[in-house]
Design brief:
Helix 1 packs antiparallel against helix 2 and helix 3 packs across helix 4. The chain has four helices and two strands. It has one domain. Helix content is 45%, strand content 8%. It is mostly helical and 97 residues long. The protein is globular. It has a two-stranded antiparallel ribbon. The longest helix has 17 residues. Strand 1 and strand 2 form a beta hairpin.
């Protein structure tokens, strides 16, 4: 059983294998476009799940040296990269915030 102390990491630490395991069924990272390419399983996800996975993908892209400025993303970018409709994405983003 894990202790709370086992959860502490440096702010820059990332379990690359864990992130890969989380993302692999749903998306691929496109280095040329600095974006994501959804797999067939992507459509099985709910709105909030898609947003969270996209944000984890942003973190992975930064760790892999993709030419993006930061891990964060504006709402408009989340919408364009995930394929979600604005009327669906904005309420989900507010819930997640």
């Amino acid at each position: 059983m894990a202790k709370l102390e086992d959860l502490i990491v440096s702010g820059s630490d990332m379990d690359r294998e864990l992130v890969g395991d989380i993302l692999a069924p749903y998306i691929r990272l496109d280095k040329e476009r600095c974006g994501v390419r959804p797999t067939e399983k992507w459509e099985e996800l709910g709105t909030e799940e898609k947003i969270l996975l996209y944000l984890v993908a942003r973190k992975a892209m930064v760790a892999l040296g993709f030419p993006i400025e930061n891990e964060g993303a504006a709402a408009s970018e989340v919408i364009s990269q995930t394929g979600l409709k604005a009327g669906t994405a904005y309420p989900a983003l507010r819930v997640l915030l």
